[in-house]
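Box S2. Input/output pair 1.
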Amino acid sequence: YTRYGNPTVQAFEEAVASLEGAESALAFGSGMGAISATVLALCSSGDHIVAQRQLYGGTLFFLQSVCPRFGIEVTLVDAAEPGAFGAAVRPGRTMLVLAESPSNPRLALADLAELGAIRGPFTVVDSTFATPMLQRPLDHGVSLVLHSATKALAGHNDATIGVIAGATDLLDAIWGYATLHGSVASPFDAWNALRGIRTLGVRIERMSSTATTLAHHLAAHPAVAEVCYPGLDSHPQHALAARQMTGGGSMFSLDLHGGEAAAHRLLRNLELVRVATSLGGPDTLMCHPASTTHAGLEAPLQELIGVTPGL
């Protein structure tokens, strides 16, 4: 019965495990399916989660709205502050430490070696923006690496699928809950994602090169207040990126002078770039996080994590 396993899905899982240097991998119906199933499989009422505040909007909304309903407390920290994750851990209570590196949308980095050194809770890194081509969190001692494989892993905007990778015994425990949670990957999406993985290396190389060229160009543009890209010397964590990533990646964000009006004017006048809230496919896409990916967050939290009107 496919909810319990499928040979096509298993082939995709084995490919991801190989790319990440993991014992096993487990696929889900989406990236959020992977996140929610992992959190709810590992955490119970009374448990505590430490997560960075620079996260994809859907993940933040899940942590701040769903987790409290189940009695799971969440502490948000600044991923760029050295030691912040470990300092927030409550021995005996913290079950999970969750990071996203580089983060959506301002490309903040979490120190993977620092995360891997934390003892006690499980550590999870959402590595969607980087892919295994640019970093492998498990090599740094992290418990689990997670991807919205809908994005660069599948790479063609025709699959919706998530995946986690790590030690077999841990994934077996999560699988026991995931089959009940029901957010399983379809064989067709797994097939499309497996096809996408075959070109992952050359795609990421070309996309990263293009992103680097555009980031350098836009950083010098008078209409741009800031470009956030780990491959730029101006990125506040550029040195960390050089230590744990093999390239800057295919994503960057730019903050415009003129705020929201300037952002929407830019979106209206695009010709080659398409406006859509996804990434990692063959098209160059652009979105306005404050009104799309992070629209579900209250304005003070948007401001805290750097989702400005002009981003």
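Box S3. Input/output pair 2.
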Amino acid sequence: MVAVKLAEAMSLLLVACLSCSAATYHLDPVSGSMTNPGTAEQPWSTLEAVASAGKSFIAGDELWLRTGHHGSPTIRGHNDGEVLIRIENGARATLRNLVVRAASNWRVQGLEISPETAPEFERITLVNLAADATRIVIENCEIHTIRDSSGWTAADWDGKACNGVSISGPNNRVSANRLLNVNFGISVTGASNVVERNVIENFSGDGLRGLGDYGVFEFNTVKNCYAVNGNHDDGFQSWSVGRGGVGTGVVRGIVLRGNRIFNYEDANQTHRGTLQGIGCFDGFFEDWIIENNEIRTDHWHGITLSGARNCRIVNNTVVDLNTTSPGPPWIRIGPHKDGTASSGNIIRNNLA
């Protein structure tokens, strides 16, 4: 009797495991329908429609997107393991923008995200990871306002350029994306996020912003700043916020490693301005590591921390792009703007 009951239990467990095996779903904006089962022969429609339908997925599931426009999806759902959203081989799948909220364990790979691909243009943040989004990976995507900004006036840059990526939640990763013709490139307010190996090319705000504790920014390229408004543009910028407002808190544990920040590549670039390299003026900044970065700029601030404790600035190279003012750039730690001295820092083996 015991053996029979054990066999029945094993059989039920096997059936349960088979029913929970990961699946591949296919999405086709041209011929798909949400009444279909999502198979290769009978695909669903757009990613926006699938997200709006509230479908749930399990670890290992994959959503393969075919060529066409997939709308403006808001991805929701906490997965036990990673669920992949990717393009089918050789496809060009586009979104106007992407929002991820109340979600975890999603990977988005290889999409083109731009309002230029939508039926109507709208200035919007192109990728938005909300405060309740965690363990999200955005990788190998093309993220741009438009592909060609060569005809843009200063007013076009000021009024049309979209913000690239905003990360408010913790423990996310943005990796190996190309951001083109944007306002602010990648802005991080959540804790423990990784921003790596991205290219931010042609921007009119700041290339990178890191306000969340324990963020890692490494091996990114930030280049070609367009000065079109009153923003003081930075390749990377941070500031603290406390109970008394900006400059009354602490930003802890940021790592800036192996990044390349170039004010411009073409001396004849239109709307070319001066770019602060790594500009952090409203500390305190504690336990930072800034190492092996290359900064080519036309400004005094190559690397500046105003209000720093126990930070390391080592093995960086800062180069002046021309002989005009402002500049040449420096590597500098100064007091907090309230006059409190910085302490416990190391500046070593840098070249300016």
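Caption for Box S3: Residues 12-19 have pLDDT under 50 and may be disordered. Helices lie at 2-19, 47-52, 154-160.
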